Amino acid sequence: MSDQDPLQARETPIGAFGHLLRKERIAFLGLLFYVLLVLLFAYTLWISLGFVLALLSPLLAFWIPEIATKRKRVRRLLLASIPIIGIASVQFSNQISSDRRNDEAISQRNEARALRAAAEEAEERSRQAHAKAERARKDAIEQAEIATTEARKARSIGEFLGRMLSSVHPARNGRDVRVVELLARSVSELDGGTLASDRETEAILRHESAKGYLGLGLLEDAEAQLRATVTIRREIYGRNHRDTLESLRNLAITHRRSGKLSEAETLSRQGLRASRDNLGDHDPETLSWMNVLAVVLRHVGKLDEALPIQREALQARSRILGEDHDDTLASMNNLAVLLGSLGSHVESESLHTRCLERRRRVFGNEHPYTLLSMSNLAMLFANQRRLQEAEPLLREAAATCSRILGAEHPETLTVRSNLAALLRTRGNLLEAERVVREVLEARTRDLGAEHLVTLGSVDRLGDILRDLGKLGKAQELIRRAYDARQATLGGDHPKTLSSASGLAGVLRERGKTAEAAALYRKVKEARARVLGKEHPSTLISMSDLAIALRDLSQLEEAESLLTQVVEARRQVLGEAHPNTLQARHNLAVVLLDRGALAEGIGECRDVLQLRRRSLGKDHPDTLATMRGLAYGMFLSKAYRESETLFKTLLEKERRVMGEDHTETATTMSSYAVLLIDQNRYAEAEDLCTRALEVKRSTLGDDHPSTLIVMANLAKALRKQQKYPEAEVMLKECYFLRRRVLGDNHPKTLGSAGSLGLLLKKRGRYAEAEKYYQVALDGQREIHGRFHPIPLTTQNNLAVLKKAQGKLEEAETALREVLSGRTVALGPEHDSTLDTSEQLASVLELQGRRQEAEVLLRDVMKTRVRTDPHNEETLLAIANLARLLESEGRVKEAAPVWKYGVELGDSSREGMTLLKAGLISKYGQCLARLNRYDEAEAELLKSYNHLLQTVGYEDHRTQSTVERLVEMYRAWGKPKKAEEYRALLKTAEKESEEGRPR
User: Fold this and answer.
1) Which of 926, 915, 935 is nearest to 976 (CA)?
2) Rounded distance between C-alpha atoms, residue 735 and residue 721, angstroms
3) Residue 498 near residue 516 (C-beta atoms within 8 A)
């Protein structure tokens, strides 16, 4: 028996296969051949039955029991492979045939597709050719229809115009028929239904008629025709057709020009939206709508919203239409105007200059667009007060317009009206009046007396007449414009409100301040309601109202209004915009009037600095603020700085405006007031005399500004005791003011009060009392009983009664004044303290010295506490010391006098006439105390200063000499006393010989 395991006696197919691999190399080759065949079948027939049989057939061969020899195994392997090879060959052949058939089928399908595509392409070409032919046929028909329509339109328009022109016959109408008459006849024909069957032609004619009316400024007629055109074109073309939008755009322009800003804004926004939706963002019609909306927003006051729209319109037009296209240049012009309104003067000037240069190159020097740019650039210069640059441009534009377009062409009249405005600003009022009158006459002839444009010229003439002081005629003209606009446009229309504002200005000039303030308030409320609270026109009304309230001394409300104006302009226009600075300037003046000197002076300094930086050191607005600051320093008793400012201001105005300009004369007069307060009366007289010459030659004898200078000159004469000359001057001023301004004008009543003061000085108490009473009654009627102005007059009247010996009446009046001033001005105000001193004087005259002393001590303490170096403080000390000395309390008086001298020495003003007088009286008090050495030193100090400043003829110098004589006599020095007594005799002798004193 064999040792082999029985379980291993029979070989498995896999085992035999492995054995074959191990034992026979040829078997390995066969196996490899087998695997390749299997892979071949797997590729070609991997799901077929042949593949399965090919796998099974060699394996089945190995299940044959007991293959004895290796050779048998090989033969069996080869025999098993034969069916595989056969099947594979057959299968491979079938696969090749199948692939060939598939390729042929695919080729046939591709050919069929190509044939079908070729057929479809041929069919498409045939269809396109047919469509093109059909389209060409339709285009030909459409062009023929268009040509027929256009011919029909041209024929209709030609016949229509022929009828219009043939209707003008010299035998019936004369030789001169105005364009407006032809337009009226054309519209009448259309309204009569002449072209009712041809609506397109009717729309064209109405549209062109509207443009004609627009050119003539007949806005109501233009609006009527445009509304009819829009209606017709909406019926024919629809709401969003280009022609419909064009007519709608012209309607928006008409609304804007006629002042219907709300309607214009609404229509502009709707039109822009429709044009963008239907024509696209960059269509010329859309860009035109953008331009219209930006201009409307500028007029509405929405400058910040208008700016990006106007910039976008300019950029798009430059890109699409070209930089020299007339629409592009129109956008450039409008952007320049808008930037000027925003205060961006540098960029505005640059754009205006570029626009002018391009229009000159494109259109020529004499084209209306070129002249418009020239006028706009000139007005920018005028707004910047660059008047010397503006005037030549406007004169050239006006002359060219007159030559090219005619003297009465609307554009010519507009430029000449702008020239008149510039002349008014320059102070050339007479030429401005002449130009405006010529413009008004031409517009009255062409447009009629009640036309809106004509009424604008009426307003402008009224303003110039107001500046000339012809207030009655100015009021009559502006009232006429106001009534006409109210009747045609309504009370809330912007142009009506403009006339109302002008009328309020005249009323204010005529002294009807309460009536003016009421009208200003009405205008402000209406503008806030119609235009908005922050619209520029509303803010102007608020400023005007504040100025009127200032005249009425309602300073708190005036300050509140101006504060609101300043804040609104800061937000909209910026800190450095000229309008913002003007509002701050007005606020500073109100603060100064209210007594808030530190705040008012600070505001003046800020505005002055900003105006110097933005406008220049010599700009008229800068100089106006400098004048305000000088006034503020004068009120705060800073005389040196005030005088320095006045001198600098006067020098600049003489150089910039000229010696004979009204503003220069105003500064002379204001400077004179400062000199009067410093007792420099001769200098003040010289300045007032020169200022009066200028005012009389430029404005006339009866102009309100001339009369102010006349009143200041009268004061300077009175202070020099030239009473007869002063009286003549003051009476002339008073009676002229009565004639020009009216009996109850504040300035007229002020002259009456000044006459009362002068006549009191001359000892004519009865006359003085009459004028004081006239002034007091009128001022109480205007301002009320306890207003500061009538209280001042009542105070002066009480002093007059004291001089007349009517002490009880004086006391009653002074106590009433003191009570009123304490409430209105405060217990520490200078005027309140002045009244206390006057009341103390009356009590002293009544023998009630203790009451007087209490009042004087309170006044002195208050003045020392509030302003120890003020001259009023020194006077208060002197009054108390004098009272003590008059009671024989010389020892008590001496330290009071000394305190006053020490305060005077510690001030920065140096020696003044008041301090010299105080020292003289202190020396007299020391002499009475037998302190002669000290007394001599003080009296000689005072005498030497008075001798050098006012001379020995002056009463103050002579009073000091008398005190020296008295002191030397009491001291036992008769020779010294006689020496100074001789000086007095010499002065008396020279006075008797007629030497001027």
Assistant:
1) 935
2) 22
3) no
Chain centre to alpha carbon of residue 815: 48
SS (H, E, C) 96-114: HHHHHHHHHHHHHHHHHHH
SS3 261: helix
Tell me the HSE value of 503 on the side-chain side, using a 13 A CA sphere.
22
For 524-535, b where at least 16 C-beta lie within 10 A, e where not — what string? Answer: bebbbebbeebb
Instruction: Write down the residue that tokens 């692939």 correspond to.
Output: 99
Rounded to the nearest 10 degrees, the angle between the axes of helix 765-783 and helix 788-803 is: 160
Neighbours of 731 (CB within 10 A): 15
DSSP assignment string, 790-829: HHHHHHHHHHHHHHTT-HHHHHHHHHHHHHHHHHHT-TTS
**Cα–Cα distance between 320 and 328 in angstroms, integer?**
9
Residue 145, burial from CB neighbour count under 10 angstroms (0-12, 13-18, 19+):
exposed
Q: Write out pLDDT tens, residues 278-308.
A: 888 889 899 999 999 998 888 777 878 889 9
Say how far apart CA 560 and CA 272 lie, in whole Å. 40
How far apart (Å, rounded) are the C-alpha atoms in residues 920 and 256? 75
Neighbours of 410 (CB within 10 A): 18
What sign for the dihedral angle of Cα 38, 43, 48, 50? negative
- For the stretch 513-535, pLDDT in tens is 788 899 999 999 998 888 788 88
Inter-CA distances, 769 with 208, 731, 766, 790, 794, Å: 74, 15, 5, 14, 11
- Find the DSSP H helices in 615-661: 620-635, 639-656
Nearest-angstrom CA–CA distance, 820 and 813: 11
What pTM does this model have? 0.61
Cβ atoms of 492 and 514 closer than 8 Å: no
Looking up tokens 């048998």 gives 72
State both tokens at 351.
């754009």
Packed helices 345-363 and 326-341: angle between N→C axes, nearest 10 degrees: 160
Neighbours of 974 (CB within 10 A): 12
Residue 488 pLDDT exceeds 70:
yes
Amino acid 860: pLDDT:
93
DSSP state of 8: G
Residue with tokens 């047919």: 130
Average the pLDDT over each of 213-227, 562-576, 673-687, 769-783 and give the range with the smallest value: 213-227
Q: C-alpha 18: how far from its chain's center?
A: 110
Task: Annotate 840-909 with DSSP letters as a single string.
Answer: HHHHHHTT-HHHHHHHHHHHHHHHHHH-TTSHHHHHHHHHHHHHHHHTT-HHHHHHHHHHHHHHHHHSTT
Q: Report which of 954, 872, 869 is spatially closest to residue 920, judged by C-alpha positions.
A: 954
Choose among 900, 899, 958, 886: nearest CA to 928: 886
If DSSP codes are grouped into helix, strand and coil, which group holds residue 577?
coil
**Token reading at 537:** 């026109």
